[in-house]
Amino acid sequence: MAEEAPALFTFEVALEVANKVGGIYTVLRSKAESTVEELGEDYCMIGICNERFVAMEVEKMEPSLPQMKRAVDLMREKHIGVVTGRWLIEGYPKVVLFNLDTAWDMYNTWSWEMFDKTGVGIPEHDTEAKRCVLFGFLTAWFLGEFRAQCGKKSVIVAQFHEWLSGIGLLMCRMRQIDISTIFTTHATLLGRYLCAANVDFYNNLSNFQVDIEAGNRQIYHRYCMERAAAHSAHVFATVSDITSLEAEHLLKRKPDLILPNGLSIKNAQCMHEFQNLHAIAKEKIHHFVRGHFYGHFDLNLDKTLYMFIAGRYEYSNKGADLYIEAMSRLNHRLKMINSDVTVIAFLIFPASTNNFNVESLKGQAVVKQLKETVDVIKDDIGNKLFDLCLRGKLPNEEQLLDRDHVIKLKRCMYANQCSTLPPIVTHNMTDDANDPILKQIRECKLFNARSDRVKLIFHPEFLSQTSPLLSMDYDEFVRGCHLGVFPSYYEPWGYTPAECAIKGIPSVTSNLSGFGCFMQSHLSDPEAYGIYIVDRRFKNVDETCNQLTDYLYHFCRMTRRERIIQRNRTERISEYLDWSRLGMYYTNARRLAIDRTHPEFLEQTRSFSPTGSVRLPRPYSAPSSPFGSRIASPYQSDEEDNKVFDDDDGDSGLHTSNLISTDTESVLSTATTPNGTGNDVISSTASDL
Amino acid sequence: MAREAFVTLATNDRYCEGALVVAQSLRRHKTRREIVVLITPQVSTICRSRLSVLFDHVIVVDVLDSNDEAHLALLHRPELGVTFTKLHCWRLVQYTKCVFLDADTLVLTNVDELFERNELSASPDAGWPDMFNSGVFVFTPSMETYNDLIKLADTDGSFDGGDQGLLNSYFSEWSTSDTSKRLPFLYNMHSTATYTYSPAFAQYGKDTKIVHFIGFVKPWNHKYDEKTGEVTQVEGPGIHEETLVKQWWKVWAEVQGLEGMRKTTTVEYKGAENPPNYGGQPDSVHEVKKEAQLKLESQKQHLQQWQSSNVDYAGADSFDHIQAKLDTVLQLDDTVNKKS
Predict the structure, then answer these.
(1) Tens digit of each residue's pLDDT (9 = 90 or more) over A527-559
(2) Which residues contact A668 (CB under 8 A, 6 or more apart)?
């Protein structure tokens, strides 16, 4: 048989391919385009078939690769439901999706094989873990068949995301299928549990007895699945330095690489428009605030700053405790200097509620009525004014505003009176007395009194365009705010500050969040770019809180112009967060996996002409970035201040040296394998630069 | 090119020692053919990893995995379990021709010329020379033959309860067909012949090509002193010629010296001085089955403990133990990779 030309096939395996459960879906979905661009037809994603999503998001078609077609057919012969086609997202990637429900017949055989080969069994009651076993074995089956259909010299790389897909990796290794494997954890199971349990996580990281901790929390089998996959993978990777540390101690393997999460900025980016969008969205928030503070509205909206914290309702993991405490201290400091700035601090955490708070709704209604009344009177006055002027008379005050109008206005203003303070929460909480956020707000006595410079509003529901209160979606809300505050304690990556950045909104993050770590190592002066990083790792709680308060206080003291300039700089980071740049880390992970299993392949393909199915990563010099590739413009602030709103070049203070161009180097240095074979990866990538 | 292979079979961990010696004895005489071992699921992971150092392919055969006919036949005649495992060799249709060697044989010279013979070539059995002995035979893998054998087993059974009876029934024309299928006795020299017909052994023994340690006591049951190379035979029916047993142990010691053998060797084989002595009649079909069954039962119970969330995570099920289990396969995979 004639040997086929060596080819490289890449698979990415995750439960969340065309199936939204949590954050991995976002990662895969946004990354697809840049990966397809790099790997083309030899890239395919493997997931499960969730009919609801498949109907909406997948275009079914038969595989075009003959090897894949045969592998799929063999499985279908055994009555396994396999959907093949393309995911209808940017990049249009190929997908192979298994219907787990068609495989339950095999469960006993497979769970036995798993136990026989690994010594790990699955408790009867854990259906999710059992489904993971089915998914894993189906994946290993498919990859095994596919491998058998390929020529000996071909190389197959498979990247598995999260413990949920780990069995696939484990069985590929146990069955000794020649596949170069990468395992990526986006967080560790045990880490999540331990953090939620309020142990002093990072200070005790090296002391945990991991088996016992997992066992006591009834997740030993899941932990074993995760750790076995991490142990067996040719390359082990996590999303951030902080998760890397966590994995090193909880999974007992130091990750070979960091794979930061990117975004697809193409759709979110508005270039020069973003400043205008900020103004438009801010006006909508103004509208809500007028209603919310009815009867107490003495704010100068031009001197009001909107800050917010948002995410899953994990009170301490997300740093809500720190947020409220810092707001309380900020309030004190602003009062001390008699500041005329008002800070309205939102907390957006979906929690269990019994619909909206009556006071909140009433405020919106009252203000709406006043607005309508004023509009009617305004039209009336306008007509009168026109009529009088037409007749050559200049009207006096009484001629314009007649008694009828005054009565109408007075009626509205009486309705506008309010004896209670503006509510701190927009909804009726199911468990008002024990809600941790409300409890803490009460302890700090931040009740939105007139004298308070910081007002708190807890919105315990996702934002939605159709809400009668704050009728805007999350993205729009973010655009309208001035500062996102995310001082998380446990945050393996954390998209929220990144989402702020691409909209040009500055944010606070922490050095315990993956994003914060990434920014810290890639920007030499993150604050200049509107990325404030609070130290939650090496400082005690009080110091951390003071640091956060300092940042907030400093932010409140900035002039409007300074904030506009800062937003321009912040928006520039977005290019840095795009997958077209961050996808390179994944490329390096794949190269490292090949280097550890088939070093000869990299050598062969290097001498190959770059045709056919072998695709090496494209050179990274091509996409130009504002950082490093351009000379900083000389200082010309005076001219630019006049056109702040369409200014995409206003941050003349930016020096290219502010940004350390460590993106490639840091990857490469971590890619060095213990036995030094990683050098191949280094030299080849370096030559691409 | 036509693919040809030597095939052997190991149904439990002890026979794996024999299989390893068969492979090493072929390798040291520079065979140019592939070497394949069929194993049953009872064989432990540790042994599997040891096997895959020497064999080109380690193939797990499970009687229960085979086709319905075989399955059905086995229900009728459960005593044929081990025999059926041997029949699996006919399913190796990726090869055009194979030579089967029992795990209790020892190759003394290059025997690649056996591939010039056709199916079914074998040596006569010393006990009944009109029959062939099924410890060494040349065959052509074929699903047709395999299915026919299963059918025959189901309808007629095996007159001696083992594979030899069944194969002699199927290839009944062996004794009357052309002489090229009748292999010389030297290709399957029963070790018992050394004393049942010692003058013949004295005359021809030096030309022996393959020894077959037939009988209940196998070379691995004897005691071997690694330092002196002395072998102390255990009592039992059928004493083997001491020089041959010593040769077997010499090859065994070579195997232990190979890379990837020692480190995966379990406590069971700690030091070669005292390999497990199972004495008595360790190799009777009955005993083997019973032991495998016990092991299977305890493993099943262990899985049930996991399934009812009753896991000894602080002890026997700690991840260190799981990892050690994984590593036997992972390390092996890595060595294979490095070799290639």
Answers:
(1) 888 999 999 999 999 999 999 999 999 999 999
(2) A588, A681, A682, A685, A686
Instruction: Among B232, B264, B296, give the residue marking a domain's end.
Output: B264
Q: Please tell me the distance from the alpha carbon of residue A261 to that of residue A270, in angstroms, as a whole number.
A: 21
Q: Quick one: pLDDT at residue B83?
A: 65
Mutate to test the interface with B, among A232, A235, A673, A677 (most CBs of B within 10 A): A232
Tell me which chain A residues have a C-beta less than 8 angstroms from the C-beta of B315: none
Q: Which domain holds residue B26?
A: 4-264
Residue A122: which of B306, B322, B326 has the nearest Cβ?
B306
Q: Is residue B188 part of a domain?
A: yes
Smallest Cβ–Cβ distance between A597 and the set B45, B313, B337 belongs to B337
B window 82-121, beta carbon within 8 A of A = none
Backbone angles phi, psi at A185, to 5 degrees: -100, 140
Report which of residues A441 and B316 the model is more confident about. A441
Closest residue of A to B298, CA-based? Answer: A116
In a domain, residue B24? The reply is yes
Bridging pattern class, strands A81-87 and A58-60: antiparallel
Measuring CA to CA, how many Å separate B224 from each of B194, B228, B254, B255?
Answer: 21, 9, 14, 14
Task: Tell me, yes or no, if B323 comes closer than 8 A to chain A by beta carbon.
Answer: yes
DSSP string, B63-121: GGGS-HHHHHHHHH-GGGHHHHHHHGGGG-TTSSEEEEE-TTEEE-S--GGGGGS-SSE
Distances in whole angstroms, Cα of residue B162 to Cα of each of A13, A168, B79: 48, 40, 9
Same domain, B34 and B183: yes
Size of interface A-B (CB pairs under 8 A): 77
The answer to whether residue B277 sits within a structural domain is: no
Rounded CA gap, A664 and A391, in Å?
Answer: 76
pLDDT band at A237 (very low <50, low <70, confident <90, very high): very high
Check whether residue B293 and residue B254 sit in a common domain.
no
A250 lies within 8 A of chain B by CB = no
Contact B314 A224 (CB under 8 A): no
Residues 287-316 of B with CB under 8 A from A: 299, 302-303, 305-309, 311, 313-314
CATH code of A8-258, in short, is: 3.40.50.2000
Residues lower than pLDDT 50 in chain B: 263-285, 339-340
Q: Are residues B138 and B81 in the same domain?
A: yes
Of A87-101, A397-411, A623-637, the range with the lowest mean pLDDT is: A623-637
pLDDT confidence of A599, banded at 50, 70, 90?
confident
pLDDT at A681 over 80: no
Per-residue pLDDT at B87 = 87
Distance from CA of A211 to the nearest CA of B (A): 6
In a domain? residue B279: no
Reported as a pLDDT band with limits 50, 70 and 90, residue A509 is very high
* pLDDT band at residue A425 using 50, 70 and 90 as cut-offs: very high
Q: Are residues B173 and B251 in the same domain?
A: yes
| Residues B183 and B293 both lie in one domain | no
What pLDDT is stored for residue B1 in this prediction? 56
pTM for this prediction? 0.65
Q: Do B313 and A214 touch (CB under 8 A)?
A: yes
Chain A segment 119-158 residues within 8 A of B by beta carbon are: 119-125
**Number of separate domains in chain B:** 2
Question: Which CATH number belongs to the domain containing residue B72 in this structure?
Answer: 3.90.550.10
pLDDT at A670: 40
Determine which of A120, A130, A250 to mutate to test the interface with B (most B C-beta atoms within 10 Å).
A120
- What is the CATH code of the structural domain delimited by A273-357+423-577? 3.40.50.2000
- In eight-state DSSP terms, residue A464 is B
Smallest CA–CA distance, residue A126 to chain B, in Å, is: 9
Residue B124 near residue B185 (C-beta atoms within 8 A): yes
Q: What is the pLDDT of residues A154-200, one digit of tens each?
A: 899 999 999 999 999 999 999 889 999 999 999 999 998 888 787 78
Q: In chain A, which residues have their Cβ closer than 8 Å to the Cβ of B3? A: none
Looking up tokens 């010629």 gives: B241
Please check whether residues B60 and B149 belong to one and the same domain: yes
Q: What is the pLDDT of residue A110?
A: 93
